[in-house]
Write a structure and sequence with these properties.
This protein has 139 residues and is mostly beta strands.
Length: 139
Amino acid sequence: MRPLAILILACSAALPALADGHNRGANEGWNCRNYEMEISCNGGICEAAEAHTPMDIHLTDEEISLCAYTGCWVGETDAVIRSGRFETYVGDALPFTTSPGSKTDGSITVDVETGIATVIIADVYAQPLTCVPWSSPRD
C-alpha cells in the first residue's frame, strides 16, 4: 500500500473520534469567560455594559459554576444535551453564593469545535463566551 493511502486510511479512521463531542479525552468540561463584552438584562431589556469584569464559568456533567462580580451561582447540572457540535448545560434554581436565598436558572451552549458559547442567566445576563476544555486538577 502506498504511504498516501495509509495516511488517508489512518486519518479517516480517526475522524469519528475527533468529531464526537462526547469523546473529549481528558477534558471533563469547559471553562468559559466573556472577555469581549458584558450584556446585562433587567425587565426584559438587555444592554451592553461600557466596562465589565469577565465572568468565570465552569461546566461539567455534574456541576455548573457561573461566577460574576461578588459571587457565583453554583449547583448541580440538571441536564446536559449533546447534539452534533453543540453541548448545552442547564442548571435550575442555582443559589448565589453570597445570597443563597437568591436563585436563578442558567443555560450555557458550547460549540465544541470553536469553543464559542452563549450563556443565559435568567433575568440577569445573556452574552457570548469563549471557552476552553477543562479538567480538574489531579493529586
